[in-house]
Amino acid sequence: MRYVSTRGEAPVLNFEQAMLSGLARDGGLYLPETVPVMEDIAALEGLPYEEVAYRVIRPYTGDCFTEDELRGAIARAYARINHAARAPLKQLAPGHHLLELFHGPTLAFKDFAMQLIAQLFEIALKRSGQRITIVGATSGDTGSAAIEAFKGIDNVDVFIMFPHGRVSEVQRRQMTTPDAANVHALAVAGHFDDCQARLKDLFNDHDFRDEVGLAGVNSINWARVVAQIVYYFTAAVSLGAPHRELDFTVPTGNFGDILAGSFARAMGLPIRRLIVATNQNDILHRALSSGEYRVGTVEPSISPSMDIQVSSNFERALYLAYGKDAGAIRQIMEELKAGGFTISQGALQALREFYVSGRVSEDETLAMIRTIREETGEILCPHSAIGAAVARQNIEPGVPMVTLATAHPAKFPDAVERAVGVRPDLPPHMADLFDLPETVTRVENDVEALKSLILERRTN
Ligand SMILES: Cc1ncc(COP(=O)(O)O)c(C=O)c1O
Ligand SMILES: N[C@@H](CCOP(=O)(O)O)C(=O)O
User: Which NCBIfam families has this protein been placed in (predicted)?
Assistant: First the structure.
């Protein structure tokens, strides 16, 4: 399997090279040249999550990992998900199901991919003897998942930038309390888009990139996306696929999770619609409704992980919608630097073939947490509640709807308390989170300051 950049000017790579590269050298994002078709989807029914993961991921890795290596990595990664089903499906109402993706060590869907890619990185780095520096940008969940997955791994330093004051206290403490010399939590004076922009600046400085062996674990890394395809399969098959169509609603920010759904669809899963659910940072909803992708100000919300305006994986969706025209992507990404672009009619039509969108206000989010609690006893995190609210607006009789529950409510106790008057408990493995000392470095929103800090702190 060969990986190409959305901007068409970077070397073509294999899976392992693309995984270790993060952002392509032309500033684009890697994606597979072709999409493997999943044969005999019905045979996945009843298989353990790990077996489905192996069958879904294997075609993407080519010959980069042996069968034993990949199966071993999957087994170790998902042994850390604290639920027998790994991604259990619960019925919220007739025809509406919740896919719980928060039973991993950091209580968000990011663990599904991050735990696996840490295993794959470790295998690849041991084999090559290479040392790398991972830098990540987070609005809260990617950072904690990355720190948890990569802490203490040889040959790797990890620097995570989060927007100072704009993540929940639980998220911050998950990043600032781990006691491992190879991880560094950086509180950046800015919002998430600033962190992601600085990350791309670091990748686009090729001298720096090569000097530190820069790697990325955000969803700009294709390996993150591929691991997220798996749970679309397990959920869909348990609801009757491939013999029955279904819809998914996905709380969306950086467009990685829903993009994974589009690859599940391209692999043969009968997904009718992928519904983008956004908070007030609604660039994706505006873009899909009007064709205008215009960057607004990032507004803090009670769903901070989705406080994103420049949605990095949307570039991959655009590349596909523009018929893999890398020149067109280079052109619109140039326009984005000046604030935005108009999606061509043809590409918009292609996106609208299966992407639908909705936006939820803060009050509607709180109301949905309350409603679901009253109706089912479940407490949703605010991101998942946004998904549930948009899903409810889009349910059609006879077509099962799955809403992705992307985080545990205990990560966002203030929002949950505002909605239903109770603060959800953290699970036992995190019971001491508020007693541990925090280590964090404040950084300016400035690429040169970041480079100096990384050069000074890395152990490579
Ligand atoms: C809890 C939660 N829900 C939803 C999202 C949005 O996911 P994506 O960025 O893949 O669109 C995020 C952040 O990525 C998140 O942390
Ligand atoms: N919501 C994310 C933002 C980064 O997303 P990623 O999927 O590109 O890593 C977060 O929680 O950090």
Answer: thrC (TIGR00260)
Cβ of 218 below 6 Å from ligand 2? yes
Paired residues of 278 in beta bridges: 359
Question: Chain-centre distance of CA 282, in angstroms?
Answer: 17
Q: What's the pLDDT band for 459 if we cut at 50, 70, 90?
A: confident
Which of 196, 113, 213 lies closest to 162 in space, CA to CA?
196
Q: How many angstroms does the Cα of residue 405 sit away from the middle of ligand 1? A: 10
Residue 161 near residue 135 (C-beta atoms within 8 A): yes
> Which residue's structure tokens are 């990949």?
70
Q: Which two tokens stand for residue 161?
A: 């930038």
Whole-structure pTM value:
0.98
- DSSP line for 57-103: HHHHHTTSS-HHHHHHHHHHHHTTSSSTTSS-EEEEETTEEEEE---
Residue tagged 């098959």 (tokens): 237
Identify the structural domains of the chain with CATH numbers, from first to last: 85-104+223-420 (3.40.50.1100)
Distance 174 CA to ligand 2 centre (A): 15
Which residue out of 110, 151, 337, 451 is catalytically annotated? 110
- The interface pTM score, or ipTM, of the predicted complex is 0.99
The token pair that represents 257 in the structure block: 């999770």
Tokens at residue 444, please? 């300016």
pLDDT at 389 over 90: yes
Is any ligand 1 atom within 6 A of the Cβ of residue 225? no
Q: How far apart are CA 160 and CA 346, in angstroms?
A: 38
